[in-house]
Amino acid sequence: MDYPMDRQWSARIVTPGIAWPIELCVVVLCLFAIWLLNPTAVLADLPPNLPSADLSSPSSPCVGCHRDNDHTLSLPSGETLSLDANIAELAVSVHGSGSAEPLNCTDCHTNETNYRYPHLPSPALTREEYGERVAQSCQNCHAPLAKHNPGHLNAVDNPNLPNCVDCHGQGHSVTSVAVLTADPVAACQGCHQSFDDPQIGRVHEELAANFGDNQNCQSCHSDRPIYPADVRCRDCHLMLQSSIELASGESVSLHVDPASISDSVHGSSMVEHRYTPLRCTNCHSDSERYEFPHQALTVDDARSLTLEMDDLCQECHTDIAALDHDGVHEAAREKNELAAASCADCHGSHNIQSPTEPRERISETCGNCHSTINDAYVESVHGAALLGEHNPDVPVCIDCHGVHNIAPPQTAQFRVTSPDLCAGCHANETLMAKYDISTNVFDTYVADFHGTTVELFEKQTPWQETNKAVCYDCHGIHNILPANDEHSQVIKENLLVTCQQCHPDASANFPASWTSHFEPSPEHNPLVYYINLFYAVLIPGVLGGFALLIGSDVYRRLGKNPRRVAGAKTTKEKSPRQEDEKGDAE
Amino acid sequence: MSQIVKRYSRFDRAQRIEHLALILSFTLLSITGLPQKYPDTGWGQGMIWLLGGIELTRLIHHTSAIVMIVGSIYHLASVGYRVFVRRVQMSMLPGWKDVVDAVQTLGYNFRLINSPPQMGRYTFGEKVEYWAVIWGTLIMILTGFVLWNPIATSRLLPGEFIPAAKAAHGGEALLAVLSIVTWHLYNVHIKHFNKSMFSGWLSHHEMEEEHPLELAAREMAQEVPVDVKALHQRRRVYIPVAVLFSLVMLVSVYFFVTFEVTAITTVPRQTIEVYAPAR
Question: By the CB < 8 Å criterion, does A562 face chain B?
Fold first, then answer.
């Protein structure tokens, strides 16, 4: 170390011939200082074994006085400084004799003006000021404070900026960085009374406990001049692994994996749609609640928390929210059936992915709550094709029930309109051709008594119940099987039982009264076919005969007919005067 | 007597009332039945809507059917009375002359022959209409029974008879309605408004024009005294038989209407556990 000033000063002192008044003054001042410091008392208290061998010799004189010294020095502010150098702690500190580079007292206490014995009084007026002066000496060896802890220095207008000793310890028991980062809560708590807040304290304790390699307070509280809230949220919640316990005993995990959000539909893929990826605060937008430290949750159970979040989605997805409003789930929730699905129940929360990809995902999603129905669907002709063959043509839940504005399926309206749902695919020729399924099914249904009635109900009084069968009454609802499956409700062997659901007295012949979706033909329902054929011939035949007679009669009457002209002259009638009483002949 | 224009009785009051009942039931059956045959047409749906929906349409149809069946029973009993008690001539029976009359009418209309055929109390056209009603009503009642009681029918007959009955019911209905609006409408309303079914009478001119043989027969007929004793004797036998027959028939109608409960009123609902969170 280079002490140019000190060298010059000592040179002057040892040079003879200096003006004696100065020397006199120095002596007087020294005496005064000795009196002031009361060295007799100091010396009297010195332990019997003077400077120990564990301290390097230049310091030994200092140690001699400042070991186990219970005197204090009063500062003008009224604060006191202990004169005990706490030698034992110093010895084990980072700067002590046990460290790689042990320091001497004067490595830090460099100012010989002050520390030359007898010492001059400290110019510091307060302890704080004293600390600052000590901190200056840390920078003799260490990087300037500005580089070391810029986070603090960013707050330049803060009058209470910490210096080295504020964190690393006053006096000689200098705490290492490793120790500080191991327990940052304790380290920072000295100034940051906010740690007294249980939430802040708890969160920082957990974060500190989870510090990985190269992670410390500054990993978050770094020199980033702008530290976006979003990053703060992510940094913190990624490291947090604990949960909040709700009054219900349920727990809500604090862990959020930012990757799950950036991979979600709200993440980087939004750029493709010319949107900015969402930030945490886009959804968690209640600034009062989500400002750190966060306000305590006001809900008692996890379900209420999920439902509370439901409103957040509606801020952007207004159109879907409007649809939802007409759906069964929202209606159920309004009736306090809180298990009814909300946005997050189907879509997830942070890791939201496209809900329809892959297509199998749809029935799986619904099955989360409607498992018994899904179990039946999985076994059905539609579900088996979806899950077994990844068939894109078969209906999934939403094709029949809709999405968001899902209508209640137990209404008369749903029932009488349901054949149209089935016809949507089963009357589609291009679609059915792939599977060699007849598209006549709808027309033949409507031509029959059941279908005729149901169609009229649908068109005229859809709100009214009808007991006439719709597709699913015979074929099943979610458990629809191919019509030729041995377990199918509509295969010939099982049809009577199916008919008896509505026609309890039906006997063995009765199912044949249904034309089985066949147009009458010589092969299928020949009796019906021939009766239709009979009338197709008879009606024009009879009407043709009538037409011939009527037409010829008109022809005769319109033409000049001598008889008719003559007859018109001879039949001037008078009103009847006399009644024929005898005629009642049959 | 030569210049005095007479009027000739044709239908008595009971027959006219019977005809009114037939008009009422037939019309109601037609306007409630045809839209059921053509429910996929706009007019069919419009009529059903005007009638108050398909269920009410069917109720009107069924009620009208009962009126028509009861009318038919009455007609059988009254014809029996005339035939067995009063022993009037069965002038409605068709004969070879009717075929000849029809051919001659065509010939006359096409001016192949100079004078129209001379016809009696019931012309061939009227006989065609009468027997068409008889035959049609029988078909409609039988097929109607099948449609009303499909479960009972299928206990005895193959199930296919039910859609077959529906086809026949519709075909026969169409034939009947078209016949009425062509043949009947033309002959008794357009060609010449024959009011006898409402007034009961035909004029001498009308008789001359349409029923010259009957006119001649009635002009020639001698007053034959009725054997009142024998008439009463026959009536004593016939009336209990007719009452019994009518009762049996009416009971059958009741049976027809209430024979079976075809279907339950409300389709059973499946009870599904809607909210069943996956394991």
Answer: no
Q: How big, in percent rounded to 5, are the helix, strand and coil portions of chain B?
A: 70, 5, 30
Fold of B91-221: Fumarate Reductase Cytochrome B subunit (1.20.950)
Count interface pairs A-B at CB distance under 8 A.
229
- In whole angstroms, give the CA distance from residue B28 to residue B48: 12
In chain B, count H helices and then E strands: 12, 2
pLDDT of residue A425: 92
Q: Is A543 on the interface with B (CB under 8 A)?
A: yes
CA distance B12 to chain A (A): 8
- Residue from B2, B4, B5 to probe the interface with A (highest A Cβ count within 10 Å): B5
What per-residue confidence (pLDDT) applies to A54?
40
Restricting to A residues 301-340, those with a Cβ less than 8 Å away from any Cβ of B are 337, 339-340
Nearest to B143 by CA among B156, B162, B130: B162
Residue A479 contacts residue A464 (beta carbons within 8 Å): no
Q: Could you tell me if residue A525 is left (phi over 0), alpha (psi between -120 and 50 degrees) or otherwise beta?
A: left
Return residue ranges of chain B for CATH 1.20.950.20: 91-221
Q: What is the pLDDT of residue A59?
A: 52
B-proximal residues of A, 456-515, CB under 8 Å: 456-457, 459-461, 464-467, 469, 473, 477, 501-507, 509-515
The helix (H) or strand (E) run that includes residue B118 is none
* Spatial separation of the C-alpha atoms in residues A491 and A481, rounded to whole Å: 10
Is A546 at the interface with chain B, CB within 8 A? Answer: yes
Q: Does A521 touch chain B (CB under 8 A)?
A: no
How many angstroms away from the CA of A295 is the closest CA of chain B? 32
User: pLDDT tens digits for B222-271?
Assistant: 777 778 888 898 989 999 999 999 999 999 888 888 878 888 888 777 78
pLDDT tens by residue, B181-235:
999 999 888 888 888 888 888 888 888 888 888 888 888 877 777 788 888 989 8
Produce one character per residue of A128-138: b if its CB has 16 or more CB atoms within 10 Å, e if not: bbbbbbbbeeb
Give, in order, the Cα–Cα distances in Å from A148 to each of A80, A133, A144, B97.
29, 17, 6, 132
In the three-class reduction of DSSP (H, G, I as helix; E, B as strand; rest coil), residue B157 is classed as coil
What is the nearest CA distance from B8 to chain A, expressed in angstroms? Answer: 5
Q: Which residues of chain A have pLDDT under 50?
A: 1-15, 41-58, 564-586
Output the six-digit token pair for A397: 């839940």
Q: How distant is the Cα of A201 from the closest Cα of chain B, in angstroms?
A: 38
Contact A453 B268 (CB under 8 A): no
Closest chain B residue to the Cα of A568, Cα to Cα: B205
The angle, 0 to 180 degrees and rounded to 10, between the axes of the packed helices B54-80 and B13-37 is: 150
Q: How confident is the model at residue B4 (pLDDT cuts 50, 70, 90)?
A: low
Mean pLDDT of B108-131: 89
Distance CA A508, CA A297 (A): 66
Alpha-carbon dihedral angle through residues A443, A449, A450, A454, given to the nearest 10 degrees: 80
Assess contact for A310 and A342: CB atoms under 8 A: yes
CA distance B84 to B91: 14
Long-range contacts of A390-397, Cβ-Cβ distance < 8 Å, separation of 24 or more: A390/A358, A390/A359, A390/A360, A392/A359, A393/A425, A393/A431, A393/A434, A393/A435, A395/A425, A396/A359, A396/A362, A396/A363, A397/A362, A397/A363, A397/A366
What is the spatial distance between Cα A233 and Cα A256, in angstroms, rounded to a whole number? 9
Q: How large is the ipTM?
A: 0.91
Q: Provide, as residue numbers in chain B, all residues whose Cβ is less than 8 Å from the Cβ of A467.
A: 263-267
How many C-alpha atoms does A99 have within 13 Å on its Cβ side? 16
Q: What are the Cα distances from residue A111, in Å, to A114, A122, A268, A548? A: 6, 11, 59, 141
